[in-house]
Amino acid sequence: MSPQKRGLGRGLSALIPKAAEPLDETRQESQPKEIAVERITASPFQPRRQFDETKIDELAASIRNQGIIQPLVVRRRGDGFELIAGERRWRAAMRVGLARVPVVIRDASDHEALQLALVENLQREDLNPIEEANGYRRLQEEFQWSQEEMAEKVGKSRPAIANAIRLLSLPAEVQQEVSAGKLPAGQARALLGLHTEPLIIATCREVIAKGLSTRETEKLVRNLLIGRKRRRSLPVMDPDLKSIVENLQRCLGTRVRLLPRARSAKGKIEIEYYSSADLDRIVQAMMPRPPSA
Prior knowledge:
Layout: H1 3-8, E1 29-36, E2 40-41, H2 53-66, E3 72-77, E4 80-85, H3 87-96, E5 100-105, H4 110-122, H5 129-143, H6 147-154, H7 158-166, H8 172-179, H9 185-191, H10 197-210, H11 214-232, H12 239-252, E6 256-260, E7 267-271, H13 276-286
Parallel strand pairs: 2-4, 3-5
Antiparallel strand pairs: 1-5, 3-4, 6-7
């Protein structure tokens, strides 16, 4: 394991030395100094994609009363500075109207800045589960870190990291629900037991509409899998009809069952909905759109 990675394991304590050194503009600057807020730009390596405005307001209120206790970490970019760590504090400082903020300036390459930004954010608890999973994936893909190495650097267990990364196997629509906080990570992971994207999406809608717990979601998934096994013992559905069912589920975002009658071309279609709002959504999806003017 490289010395550089061991330094990252201490988070921001590795970036801000305890003993202040004389400021030397010709080398890395480890002593905090104040710079104008408008000279700072956001990091392109920030793993966070959503910022909770309520939490930013709370942090702004704290800064208004107590100031910024922990300096931001930045690096020089042209005539200004680019954030490495501390974007929430920076945003809150601008909201308060601070003209200058304390920073520690690091001489970091793009590669180092990405590592520092990812590890610093992953050590915190306020990334949403998809942001956290994407952060781990970037550490895997761009730095070839194993799950054991990531666990050591961010202070999490290896199974916790493995479970987080599994969420990225879900369909994009389900990941969006997790990011928005509508579907908890435990329920989302339970959906991975299902094997088709339309069924996962339809079940996701049911879980959200019914407010199911993780245990209830796991039970629902087991029942669906049992139902699939039972259906396998029945005569195999015509491939064209099966394709129609899958397309309907994909378009309507809910479970659809085709019930053909024996020795007949007739049958029934069952479309499930889980709330009045869900029924309205399905009806709107089925209604033809009016021609544009």
